[in-house]
Amino acid sequence: MIPIVDRASAESIAPIWRMPFRPFFWGGALWSMIALLVWQLQLSGWQLPALRLGVIWHSHEMLFGFAAAVVVGFLGTAMQTWTGIPSPKGPQLISLVGLWLLARLGYLFAVVPLWMPVCAEVAFFLLAAFLLGARVLRTRQWRNLFVLPAMLAFAGLSASHWLLPGAQSRVAMVALLLVTAIIVVIGGRVIPFFTARRFQLSQRDKLPVVEWGTHIAAISLLLCVAIDLPQVIWAVFALTLGVLQLIRVLRWHPTKIWGEPMVWSLHLSYWLVVLGCFLAALAWSGVAPGWQSPALHAFAVGGIGGLILAMASRVSLGHTGRLLKAPRLMPLAFAALILSALARIFWAPAPSGFLAAVIAWIVGYSLFLIYYTPVLFQPRTDGHSG
């Protein structure tokens, strides 16, 4: 039973501010579409001098403005289940969202001095580190202690991305690998569980060598990129991670998933993480150096974008007391994110490939907002608070 200290007090809070997933899933989805639309206008030749646009802005907003913010919303929500301590809500949650929004607007408009959004975003991640880390430490949930270094790393990387001009590409890559590592950890926990539960299958025992190897390979790859070791070493860890993830997904009953969109969407997105690992290994080993950008976008669009959409759809229903059944057109949304990833991997850098990827992403997340805005802004259907 989830503890509620004061139910009357909790229910006095507007529903959107009762759990972290509510504002961050909604805001992250909306912001991802805005950022991609603005970026597509820039690529199409529109002159927007009032805006601080460029490759750095694009990668920053998709990594920190979208992905990392949704991670904060997910982990902040999961923390209540993991620790038994209520998640941040009310003024704490409003403060988090306010800092996140200040950073987004500050980075977008060129008239705002750069130090202002940098400070707001660092404060956002430090506050998240404090709110989430304190709950883990208080309950000695050492298995979930990764949230503390992850939030601190996001804080450092977000500032470095703007303030270290000579290392911006590598900082962005480290941030991408950090988000990927988090979804590999979380995906390894929830995807086999959701699959087995939905189809009443036996959940296979995890192989310790695969699970520990996954964590070691993911962290090693991240650190190798961060300290700029030779790329052939990156390739070794990317290949190792890919093989381990392939073993993982083949043990998650992949032939049983096609009758449930809430499940196959998770699996297909995770398969794109596996693809990204193998493409990255080819690129960094020197066998196919031109595949680095497709590999990174397999992680970013397919793995992160697809898994966020699939997880946000499921979490939003489950944590608001609703039936875990995909709304009518959500299978189209899930398919659109897979197509967006495939277009960005195999069709870009042709302009039509970029455009197709952006359109497919916007279709997917627009459908999410159409169906889930009422879910996120309204109270739970079962009468509980949260």
TrEMBL record:
InterPro entries: NnrS. It comes from the Bacteria. The keyword Transmembrane helix applies. The keyword Transmembrane helix applies. The chain crosses the membrane at residues 24-42, 62-81, 93-116, 122-138, 145-164, 170-195, 207-226, 232-250, 262-284, 296-317, 329-347, 353-372. Keywords: Membrane, Transmembrane, Transmembrane helix. This is NnrS family protein. It comes from Microbulbifer epialgicus. The lineage of its organism: Bacteria, Pseudomonadati, Pseudomonadota, Gammaproteobacteria, Cellvibrionales.
